[in-house]
Design goal:
heterodimer; A: mainly beta; Folate-binding fold; four-stranded antiparallel beta sheet; two-stranded antiparallel sheet; 6 strands; B: alpha/beta; D-Amino Acid Oxidase, Chain A, domain 2; eight-stranded mixed beta sheet
Chain lengths: 93, 418
C-alpha cells in the first residue's frame, strides 16, 4: 500500500486517491493540423518507464484536487509530490 | 536430441530405479554466435513461439533467451483459466484457435499439461450485465464457439456452493457458460513446450538477459546480453510486462502500460468447486486446483508498476466479492499471495506485430488474460516471424491499429474487467 502526501491535505492512505496516468502530457495545441500518427501517439502511446515515473493522482475521496507524483515503478517509493503546473522538484532524499 | 517418449512404460521402467535415471528434459547449451531467430522471453508464449518456429516453419537455428528461469514470470503467476468466449470476431477467432490447440496439446508435446475442460462461468449481476452476456454469448455461437446461458437455478445445479438467493448486494441473475473452457497446469505448459522445443533443436538459454538490440540501417542484427553479443537474422520479443523496456532498446514506443496483477491460493480443501467461476461486476474469479487449493484472481492496480506486487486493498475487495458469492469460503485461510506484471493495451487486446525495425517482432499487450492464449499466441507469432507477415488470425493485431483507429475493444466485453 502507498501512503501519498496530498499537497493540500497531507499524508493519506492510497485508498483515498485515484490514479491518472502519465503526467505532463500536453494536449495538441492545433488538433486540426495533426495527422493520424500524431493523434495515435498522443492518445495511446505512453512512456511506461521502469524506474522514476512522473504521474498524476487525484485525492478523489478528499479534496478532489489533481497533483503530480514522481514514483519509482519498481520499489514503488514515492520520490516527490508537487502541484499540477509545477515541474518536478527532483529527489529530495 | 530425440528424447525418450514419456509413457506408462517409461514410468514403469524408471520406477524400478527409484526414478533416478530420468534424462534431462532440455539441455542448457552455451549460446552460439549467430542464430536465424532469437526469441526473447522464456514464458509460455516465448517457448511456444520457439517450438512452432522449429516444428511448423522449419527454422533451423532458434535460440530462446530468458533472463531468469523459464516459466518464472507470468506463466507461473496466473490463475490458469482457459476460455475463448470473446465478443469480437478478431479476438474470438484468435482465442478459439488457441483453445483448439490446447485440446490436443498434451498429446502433441508428449507432456501432460493437465488441461481440464471443466467449464467457465461468467456471472451477471445486473440487467445490463445480462444483456451484455446475451450479446456476447450469441456472438460466440455465431463464431462457432460453445456458449450457453444459465439462469440462477441452473447455476445452483452446477455450483451448489454459490449463493444465488438474490439477497446479496449484487445478486446473481445468470451467467454465460463455456463448457469447453477450463484450466491447465501452468508449469507443465512451460516445461512441455521447453522439452518439445529442445527436442526440435531450439537452444534454451536461461539466465541470459537482453540488454540491448543491435541494429544496422533499420534492420536488426542481434542482441546484447549479459552473456555477450548474439547475432540474429530476426529477433522475436515476447516479454509481457517488460515489453516497453525492450521496445525502448529498439528505439520505439508501445501503447502498453505495465500494471501489477495479484492472485492468491487458499489452503487445500476437499473438492467443492468443479468449474471456473468469474464475475466481472464484483471482480473475482475462482477455481479449485487438483491439489484442492482455491485459486483466486484479483484485479490490476490502477497505477503502473514493475514490482511484481500490488496493493492490499485490491485483494481485500477481491476476497469480499468471493465471500459474498461463496459464503462457505468465509473461514478459508489463504496460503500464498503474489503479483505479476501485466502489460495492458488501451483496447485490452494483444499486439502481435512487425515493428518499425526490420526483422524485429513484438508479441505483447496480453494484459490480464495471456495464459489461455499461450499455444495460439506462439502459433501465430511463429508464423509472423517466419514469413515476415502476420497470419490472417493476427492481422488485426498489428501495432498500426493505434494509428488507424481500428481498435478491437474487448474491455469488459471479454467477460472480466481488465
Amino acid at each position: 500500500m502507498l501512503e501519498i502526501e496530498c499537497p493540500w491535505c497531507g499524508s493519506r492512505d492510497q485508498d483515498e486517491f485515484s490514479y491518472g496516468g502519465e503526467a505532463h502530457i500536453v494536449r495538441p495545441l492545433s488538433p486540426e493540423n495533426l495527422d493520424d500518427r500524431e493523434w495515435g501517439d498522443y492518445l495511446f502511446f505512453r512512456d511506461n518507464k521502469k524506474g522514476q515515473h512522473a504521474e498524476q493522482w487525484c485525492h478523489s475521496a478528499g479534496c478532489r484536487r489533481w497533483f503530480n507524483v514522481v514514483r519509482d515503478t519498481v520499489s514503488y517509493r514515492i520520490v516527490s509530490v508537487y502541484r499540477s503546473g509545477d515541474s518536478s522538484p527532483g529527489d529530495p532524499s | 536430441m530425440k528424447k525418450d517418449r514419456y509413457s506408462v512404460f517409461s514410468l514403469a521402467r524408471n520406477s524400478v530405479n527409484y526414478h533416478q535415471d530420468w534424462a534431462e528434459a532440455w539441455r542448457s547449451p552455451e549460446p552460439a554466435g549467430e542464430y536465424d531467430v532469437i526469441v526473447v522471453g522464456g514464458g509460455g508464449h516465448g517457448l511456444a513461439t520457439a517450438y512452432y518456429l522449429a516444428t511448423e516453419h522449419n527454422v533451423g537455428r532458434v535460440a530462446l533467451l530468458e533472463k531468469g528461469w523459464i516459466g518464472g514470470g507470468n506463466t507461473g503467476r496466473n490463475t490458469t483459466i482457459v476460455r475463448s468466449n470473446y465478443l469480437w470476431d478478431e479476438s474470438a477467432h484468435l482465442y478459439e484457435k488457441s483453445l483448439k490447440l490446447w485440446e490436443g496439446l498434451s498429446q502433441e508435446l508428449n507432456f501432460n499439461v493437465m488441461f481440464s475442460q471443466r467449464g467457465v462461468m461468467n456471472l451477471g449481476h445486473t440487467l445490463q450485465d445480462m444483456r451484455d452476456i446475451y450479446r456476447r454469448s450469441n456472438a460466440n455461437r455465431l463464431n462457432g464457439i460453445d456458449s450457453e446461458i444459465l439462469l440462477p437455478d441452473q447455476i445452483k445445479e452446477i455450483v451448489p456452493a454459490m449463493n444465488v438467493s438474490g439477497d446479496t448486494r449484487y445478486p446473481v441473475l445468470g451467467a454465460s457458460y463455456q463448457p469447453r473452457g477450463g484450466v491447465a497446469r501452468h508449469d507443465a505448459v512451460a516445461w512441455g513446450y521447453a522439452r518439445a522445443a529442445d527436442s526440435s533443436g531450439v537452444d534454451i538459454i536461461q539466465n541470459c538477459e537482453v540488454t540491448g538490440i543491435r541494429q544496422e540501417g533499420g534492420s536488426v542484427r542481434g542482441v546484447e546480453t549479459n552473456r555477450g553479443y548474439i547475432g540474429a537474422k530476426k529477433v522475436a520479443v515476447v516479454v509481457a510486462g517488460h515489453a516497453s523496456v525492450l521496445a525502448e532498446m529498439g528505439g520505439f514506443r508501445l501503447p502498453v502500460e505495465s500494471h501489477p496483477l495479484q492472485a492468491l491460493v487458499s489452503e487445500p480443501l476437499k473438492p467443492v468447486l468443479d468449474t471456473v467461476v468469474m464475475s466481472n461486476a464484483v471482480h473475482g474469479y475462482v477455481s479449485q486446483s487438483d491439489k484442492g487449493e482455491l485459486v483466486i484472481g484479483a484485479g490490476i492496480d490502477a497505477y503502473t508498476g514493475y514490482g511484481q506486487r500490488g496493493s492490499f486493498s485490491i485483494i481485500e475487495g477481491n476476497v469480499a466479492a468471493i465471500v459474498e458469492l461463496f459464503p462457505i469460503f468465509s473461514r478459508v485461510r489463504m496460503l500464498r499471495q503474489w503479483g505479476g506484471i501485466v502489460d495492458v493495451c488501451p483496447d485490452a487486446c494483444p499486439i502481435i506485430s512487425k515493428t518499425p525495425v526490420n526483422g524485429l517482432y513484438f508479441n505483447c499487450g496480453w494484459g490480464t488474460g495471456g495464459f489461455k492464449a499461450t499455444p495460439g499466441s506462439g502459433w501465430v507469432f511463429a508464423h509472423t516471424v517466419a514469413n515476415d507477415e502476420p497470419h490472417p488470425l493476427n492481422a488485426a493485431f498489428e501495432l498500426d491499429r493505434f494509428y488507424s483507429g481500428a481498435l478491437i475493444d474487448e474491455h469488459g466485453a471479454a467477460g472480466v474487467a481488465h
